[in-house]
Design goal:
about 210 residues, mainly alpha, two-stranded antiparallel ribbon, 10 helices
C-alpha cells in the first residue's frame, strides 16, 4: 500500500504546473531590442521608455555628422550657422512655391490671397502659417527623430548643437568641437540622468534630472 501511495505522489508531482520562474526562463522569447533594460525577474508587461548608452552615443554621432559639413572632424560655429541658413533657404523656397500657383517665379496678389485664405483660421498668423507649411526652422541643429523605444527620451536628453553648446564642448578652445568633445559633453548629460548607474536612462530619470 505504501508503494502505491509513493507512486501516486510522484505522478502528481510530474503533472503539477511548473513554477512561474521556470516558464519565464525556458522557452520564453528573448526581449526585443530596446526592452532589455528591464532586469531579469521583473514583469515585462509594460516596458519602460528608455535609452541605452551606446544607442545614445550613436544619436550624438549622427548629430555631429549633420553639422560637420566640411567633414574635417570639427564642428565650428560658422558651419552650424551655414547649416541653419541652408535649411531656412530651403524652407523659404518651399513656402514660395506653395504660393506661386502658376510657377512663374512671381507672386501676384490673387495667388497670395488664395494661399492665405487656404490657411483657414491661421490666415493672420505668420507662425501658424509657417507651421501649416512645415517650414519652422530652429536656430540650432537637433537630432533626427528616433523611432522605437527611447525616442522620446533622446529628443529631450540630447542637447541641440548651438553656439552655447559648442562653447561648452570645445574644451581645448581650438577651431571647433571634435566628435570626442561633443560625445564627452553629451555624455555628462546622460550620466547625470542615469541616477541608478545601470547604463540606461528611463523616461522617469530623464524627467527627474536637474534643469539649468
Amino acid at each position: 500500500m505504501r508503494r502505491v501511495m509513493l507512486v501516486l505522489a510522484a505522478a502528481a508531482a510530474l503533472l503539477a504546473p511548473l513554477p512561474a520562474w521556470s516558464q519565464s526562463r525556458e522557452g520564453a522569447p528573448a526581449p526585443r531590442e530596446g526592452f532589455d533594460h528591464i532586469r531579469e525577474g521583473e514583469p515585462r508587461q509594460a516596458p519602460v521608455e528608455a535609452i541605452r548608452r551606446d544607442r545614445y552615443d550613436e544619436v550624438v554621432t549622427r548629430l555631429f555628422a549633420s553639422a560637420d559639413s566640411n567633414r574635417d572632424g570639427l564642428v565650428a560655429l560658422a558651419e552650424v550657422r551655414a547649416v541653419i541658413e541652408t535649411r531656412k533657404d530651403a524652407a523659404i523656397r518651399e513656402r514660395f512655391a506653395s504660393i506661386d500657383a502658376n510657377r512663374d517665379q512671381s507672386v501676384s496678389f490673387a495667388e497670395f490671397n488664395q494661399w492665405q485664405r487656404g490657411l483657414g483660421s491661421a490666415v493672420l498668423s505668420e507662425e501658424a502659417a509657417a507651421a501649416v507649411n512645415g517650414v519652422l526652422v530652429a536656430e540650432n541643429i537637433r537630432p533626427e527623430p528616433m523611432r522605437g523605444p527611447g525616442g522620446q527620451v533622446v529628443a529631450r536628453l540630447v542637447e541641440p548643437i548651438s553656439a552655447t553648446m559648442l562653447a561648452a564642448a570645445n574644451t581645448d578652445y581650438d577651431a571647433g568641437a571634435s566628435l570626442a568633445e561633443v560625445l564627452a559633453h553629451q555624455g555628462k548629460r546622460f550620466e547625470a540622468a542615469d541616477t541608478d548607474e545601470d547604463g540606461w536612462v528611463t523616461e522617469e530619470e530623464e524627467r527627474a534630472r536637474p534643469r539649468r
